[in-house]
TrEMBL record:
One of its GO terms (molecular function) is DNA binding. One of its GO terms (biological process) is DNA repair. The keyword Transmembrane applies. Residues 34-138 form the Restriction endonuclease type IV Mrr domain. Coiled coil: none annotated. This is Transmembrane protein. SUPFAM superfamilies: Restriction endonuclease-like. The chain crosses the membrane at residues 142-168. It comes from Cavenderia fasciculata (Slime mold). Keywords: Membrane, Transmembrane, Transmembrane helix. Pfam families: Mrr_cat.
């Protein structure tokens, strides 16, 4: 009887350890999937020639709470981007949490952008945060190089006109 109890304990330990390993491996896969999605969004922003793109930026609010923002870009007017690669619609709580992180860090909600690989639950669309769903992201990815070319041409023409003005007065 004692041997049976020991064997049962061993099986419980093995099952518990295996279950923990499965959850750990699943968590790593989800994290990798999220990181790939963030990279996809950062690439799209880079193709649009957005400036100063940084990933996984830590913010510390006035109470000392730390929050991580997936992507921050811009020089004078920064935009803060939260990315979610869910197989189900993004829930209201995720969008509301992002809005609250912005508020706690004295960042106007107009500077926030929430990008999802899919869609949002209906109520999440009324939180006053700019949302980009999967279809809109795909369109932006297609347009990004063209937007980048237009920006580059604008910068180039402004720079040249400035030089010409300096030379010819």
């Amino acid at each position: 009887m004692v041997a049976f109890k020991n064997v049962e304990k061993i099986f419980r330990l093995i099952r518990g350890t295996t279950r923990g390993m499965d959850e750990h491996m699943m968590g790593n896969k989800m994290k990798e999937k999220g990181m790939r999605f963030e990279e996809r969004v950062a690439t799209m922003l880079s193709n649009r020639l957005e400036a100063n793109i940084k990933r996984n930026v830590t913010l510390i609010d006035k109470r000392g709470n730390r929050s991580e923002i997936d992507i921050v870009y811009g020089i004078f007017f920064k935009t803060y981007v939260e990315c979610k690669d869910y197989s189900v619609p993004v829930p209201l709580k995720d969008v509301a949490k992002f809005k609250e992180v912005l508020r706690l860090n004295n960042i106007g909600i107009g500077r926030g952008l929430f990008i999802a690989s899919g869609d949002y639950v209906p109520r999440a669309k009324f939180v006053d945060i700019k949302l980009l769903d999967g279809d809109q992201l795909r369109r932006q990815e297609i347009l990004a190089p063209f937007i980048g070319i237009i920006k580059f041409a604008s910068y180039l023409s402004l720079t040249l006109s400035g030089y010409l003005f300096m030379i010819f007065g």
